[in-house]
Amino acid sequence: MLVLGIESSCDETGIALYHTERGLLAHHLHSQIAMHAEYGGVVPELASRDHIRRVLPLTERCLQDAGCQRSDIDAIAYTEGPGLAGALLVGASIANALGFALQKPVIPVHHLEGHLLSPLLADPAPAFPFVALLVSGGHSQLMAVRGVGQYELLGETVDDAAGEAFDKTAKLLGLGYPGGPALSRLADQGLTGRFTLPRPMLHSGDLDFSFSGLKTAVLTLVRQQDTLDPQTQADIALAFQEAIVEVLVKKSLAALKQTGMKQLVVAGGVGANRQLRQQLDLAAERRRLKVFYPPLAFCTDNGAMIAFAGAQRLRFANHDYAFSVKPRWDLS
Ligand code: KG4
Ligand code: ZN
Fold first, then answer.
1. Which CATH number is 2-116+299-316's, of 3.30.420.40, 3.10.129.10, 2.60.40.1180, 3.40.50.1370?
2. Which of 25, 55, 171, 283 could potentially form a cystine with 17 if both were Cys, beta carbons 3.0 to 4.6 Å apart?
């Protein structure tokens, strides 16, 4: 079965073709980052309009790369939510129009399920069960994943998401949008030990996170500086990254201990963070645990994870082409 995946929940148009026997055949991504950068964040109306321009050309490119025709598509998966309503509606309406034209089933996919299952696109891939650390711009959650559709929420952020904290802190340091990758690069130049920031909820005894206080601590630190020279900026970036990484690593280990599981899967944009990966790998090696990451290209939003999640959910396909979107939607 050949599944076309359409991701349009935020500022990335991701299109992919996943074959249930042959694997991922093609994927293309158009990022709107440059378009939104001058506004310092995503402008929903601009995002929707750009998705409209990109979905079909990227689909044609995927078909060409895979050597397939439109008529070869067996099912179409699209992100139903959560995300920006207008942006989601673009993917949903094109997916259903294509499905209707080709008389093929359409599969609505939960964006976070796409992220959760994306490490299964890697080789070697983890086998169920595993604990998933899902850290993106909109979510920070720990989940016990026992199979497709069997997700138990173990803990989540009570305020900002990890990616959101990276982005807001980057803004405080005068870095562009999106700030996560830029802040991480800046932290590489930082000196350890000059500043120490709090580790929020590290000892809360549960698996929840809180990141908004950390951002406020950075603001206080920035205000205390006479001048924000490049080295000071880098040192603050490093202190912030160290704090957030320590919390994510310790809570992930606690989740593994609580569930008795031996495998951790890291998904979502913050999963691309190098220091997080290093610290997790180090901790896992000591404890004989295994950590899996999606290929870097599939850490942030992409069409491959939607095509793949859709392929796992073919039995839930919709054949009547009535569609909706769910801008707010809990996975479990
Ligand atoms: O999963 P994603 O692409 O989109 C959402 O569904 O939110 O995640 C985007 C988030 C942004 O907040 C971005 O700043 C963050 O992931 N991010 C990073 C890195 N790369 C992306 N944060 C820290 N370090 C990175 N290398
Ligand atoms: Zn995402």
1. 3.30.420.40
2. 25
Residues with CB under 6 Å of ligand 1 are: 10, 136-138, 163, 166-167, 178-181, 184, 268-270, 272-273, 300-301
pLDDT single digits (tens) 220-233 = 999 999 888 999 99
Ligand 2: distance of its center to the CA of 172 in Å? 23
Longest Cα–Cα distance in the chain: 65
The pLDDT-based confidence of 40 (bands split at 50, 70, 90) is: confident
Give bridge partners of residue 290 from the DSSP assignment.
263
Q: What is the pLDDT of residues 117-151, one digit of tens each?
A: 999 998 889 999 999 999 998 889 999 999 999 99
- In angstroms, rounded to a whole number, what is the distance separating the alpha carbons of residues 135 and 143? 11
Nearest to 63 by CA among 76, 49, 50, 51: 76
